[in-house]
Structures are given as C-alpha cells and as structure tokens.
Automatic annotation (TrEMBL):
CDD domains noted in UniProt: AdoMet_MTases (cd02440)
InterPro entries: Methyltransf_16, SAM-dependent_MTases_sf
Annotated keywords: Methyltransferase, Transferase
Protein name: SAM-dependent methyltransferase
Organism for this UniProt entry: Aliidiomarina taiwanensis
C-alpha cells in the first residue's frame, strides 16, 4: 500500500503528447520512513511536487524551442518533470533534480509510460555545497523562487554548477524574489532577457508571469 492516491493526466506540448502520473489532490501525504521530514518537507508542502503547475507548462513550452546541441542540461526542482520529459523527447542530454523522496519514482514511471529512455536524476538540496555534480550549460526551473531564501540559495548553486558559457531559464508567475535573484546573477556575469507571458489561458495583458532567461558568455541574444 503506497499510502497516497494518484491520477492520470494528458498534456500536449507541441508534437509531444505526454501522459503523467500525478498526485490526485493537494491533501496527499505519506512519509512512513520519515524521509520527507528528514529533508525538511512538512506535511503541508509534501504534495506540491506531485501537481502539474502552470509554471511547468510554461517552461515546457519554452524548452521545446531551445537549442540542445552539445549542451548538458539540468532541471531544478523538477516535481513531475514535464520540461525534462519534453527535452528527453527531443533527444537532449537532460538530468532532472529535486529533493522530494518520491520525485525519482514518479520520474521513472512517467518516462516509462511515455516510452522515453530513463532520465538521470540527482537528489539535489540547493544549499549542499559539498555535492559535486559537475557543470551544466543550460539550467532550467519552474516557479523555484517562491521562498525568501531561494534567491540566495539558487544563485549560490548556479555559481557552483553553471559552465562559463551558460544559460538559465526560469518560469516565474510573478514572485517578488526574482529581482534579488537577478541582481545576484548579474554579479556572476549573467544578463537578463525578461518576457511577460500568460500563465492562464484567459489572462489579459499586461501579464504578471515572466519567462526569465539569463545568459553568460553568449554574443548573440537568442543563442
């Protein structure tokens, strides 16, 4: 008995028609071995990884068009990992990461039901400075700036894992902490291209949501 209930979702991102296993609602909670508690995940936030958020859809649409050639790519806080699945469908060198104890299990399942090759997974607490995972050319994440300390933690992580020539793409529904994150990345040599995007189909401009694209070491804006 797994201790939680799930549902099946169908999502279309361009030509990729994905099927996803997700948690059935926000009230799910199961931590029989205390792994979530050990990772600092409380019962109120335990189910968040297992929902398909609109920010993930926005990011998935963005990475559908990004250049993947000769790039080592990492998704941060992947949750159900829709962007990683899209990138794997495109043949990218993609690694997914999160710190929820069930993220890897859901990732394996969702890659399998979509007939994709397994996606490498890293258990990645952002503040762990001792974890050596190498350098990445493209780092992506959806709605990962929602806590006051996330801006500093993420900037520190990117300093450790981003290649000299790198791009960071984050879909943000309008969090205030993005400005602090942008200033920290500017100190690391990244420039920002900010695009307002709708997060709901009925949303009218000016849109609150943003697609944040940071670049370092590129001579062309759209590289």
């Amino acid at each position: 008995m797994q201790g939680y209930s799930t549902k099946k979702l169908k999502v279309k991102v361009g030509a990729f028609k994905a099927r996803l296993k997700a948690l059935s609602d926000h009230n799910q909670y199961s931590d029989p071995e205390g792994k979530a508690k050990q990772a600092g995940i409380c019962s109120a936030s335990w189910s968040l990884f297992g929902q398909l958020w609109q920010a993930s859809r926005v990011l998935a649409k963005a990475v559908k068009h990004v250049d993947i050639e000769n790039r080592r790519i990492l998704e941060l806080g992947c949750g159900l990992a829709l962007p990683s699945l899209v990138l794997q469908h495109r043949g990218a060198n993609i690694t997914a990461s999160d710190y929820h104890p069930l993220s890897k299990r859901f990732l394996i399942h969702n890659a399998t039901i979509n007939k994709l090759e397994p996606i490498p997974y890293i258990n990645l607490p952002w503040a762990d400075e001792k974890l050596d995972i190498g350098r990445f050319d493209l780092i992506v994440g959806s709605d990962i700036l929602y806590e006051p300390d996330h801006a500093d933690m993420l900037a520190g992580l990117i300093e450790r894992i981003a290649s000299d020539k790198a791009k960071v793409i984050i879909s943000c529904p309008g969090r205030g902490y993005r400005n602090r994150f942008t200033r920290s990345l500017a100190d690391l040599g990244f420039t920002l291209n900010e695009q307002r995007v709708p997060f709901d189909k009925d949303e009218k401009p000016p849109y609150k949501g943003r697609l944040l694209t940071y670049r370092r070491g590129y001579t062309e804006l759209h590289a």
